[in-house]
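#structure-requests
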Amino acid sequence: MSRSTKHYLDYFDKVKMTGRKINWNWAALLPAVFFYRRMFAIGISVLGVGRLLDKLLSLLFERVPLAGWEDTVDLTVTILFIVLCMGYTDYMYLQHANHKVLKGKLRGGVSPIALGIWVFLLIAGVCLLALKLPPL
């Protein structure tokens, strides 16, 4: 049994016994973990909610100037959202796995191709961002 399989089985047992849903998952630092685990709808939702939070904060800052605190508030909200995702990713995976079992879909649990596409898009995005930034 692999280390990750043991991790998830232990976590699933702990949730059944205690009902505690929060478990730290470093892989969730990037939303790629959702695509790697074939949780495409959750991954797209997380990206959408992140984008929505960004737009809502932009609208808020247009209407309520915070005297230079905009970047701090934006960063704080982003970090809180990432921490929330990191804390609940394992529980979302448990729900996803249970749903697959109930529907009889027991095909593999990971998608290296989706992870590769995600990494490519991330690198391409960083490169495009670097091209738009003014030189120091």
